[in-house]
Amino acid sequence: MRKHSIIKQVSLFLALALCLGFAGGALLTRRTTAAAETDGSTTTYDAVYSSDNPIPEIAANVRPSVVQVITSAATWDGRTREVSTEEIGYGSGTYIRALDSGEGGYILTNNHVIDEGESYQIQWLDGTIMDAELVGADDGTDIAILQFNEPAPDDATPVPLGDSDALQIGELAIVIGNPGSGDEVLFGTVTAGIISGLEREGVTAQGSFTRPVSTIQVDASINTGNSGGALLNAQGELVGIPTIKMTASYTTIYEGLGFCIPINTAKDIIDQLIENGEVVRPRLGVTVTTVDGPDEPMRNYAPAGVQVVTVEEGSPAEAAGLQAYDIITEINGERIYSNDELIAVIDQFSAGDTVELTVCRYYNENGTALAEYEELTVEVELQIID
């Protein structure tokens, strides 16, 4: 059977409310007593009703580290003929890492929170407002990093990053953020529920991902302004970034469908943005299109896969002998059916890595059909292509 996820069939026309979520930092500076008592085991929502409820202590520790992100841009008033600065967007962010100097640090948020902004501020739970500068952003995964250069409030410390790969469906999910905008923000709002689903594919919204990202589904309330906030586990660790809320399709009204970027997806992106200000990904050097067909190649029917449209001159793909009309069906033995699957697999590698492609060739590079198709194994050394 094909590996297509049913979730990929989710309509792109769904009415989605975006909420900004902020990812935790790489420095582990605190853990709660409740977290220590769990010994890392899965805690379900039943804990909320017990004397061992970990949420109050987690909220007390993490709320001061989740900020509101205010995005502003210059505007032109044709009537007054004056230029002014206007707030154009609001979201949340999480304090994830301190600067080496000890004064200042990094805030993780969503790219769609800071997109089109020219200046930024962060507001802490205690009301302190600071200027922030954009370190870097990645529209592929909807992640951005801001930097502040003043001492954080005394009760605000970097939130430890957890392991989103260890999450289980049904375990406790805690969301902290700042829903609302302008003068109607409910700072430090805490909601709780469970992990409702893992590896949800094809869930997106206008302004969110431009690359395939598998998300975490939660039923903890996420609202506009939560984007870039914190999804936490029962140990008080940041395991996801609240990013999207699904509200309705043409035929259905939804409740309790929120989606978060897994923190393990974000970790490498965070490091690259802080170190380089951008995310650099290796490429094959081809343009491709998804084609349908049988699972296995047949004499008169090319298989489903990713067909090469053009090969860039001087690219790794050209050096490896790939041609237009070739159909890529596997990467390192993993079956590939779509452009998104191809991108998702390639994104797991670094420049200099070699991948093995299984390729079906039914036509030569001029589009003339071959008398017999060929099934080839091609090794490609991935490179950074400007």
From TrEMBL:
One GO molecular-function entry: serine-type endopeptidase activity
InterPro entries: Chloro_Bact_Ser_Proteases, PDZ, PDZ_sf, Peptidase_S1_PA, Peptidase_S1C
Record's signal peptide: 1-25
Lineage of the species this protein comes from: Bacteria, Bacillati, Bacillota, Clostridia, Candidatus Pullichristensenella
GO biological process, one term: proteolysis
Matching Pfam families: PDZ_2, Trypsin_2
Keywords, sorted A to Z: Hydrolase, Protease, Signal
Keyword Ligase belongs to the record: no
PROSITE patterns: PDZ
Name this polypeptide is given: Trypsin-like peptidase domain-containing protein
Record bears the keyword Hydrolase: yes
Domain PDZ: 275-348
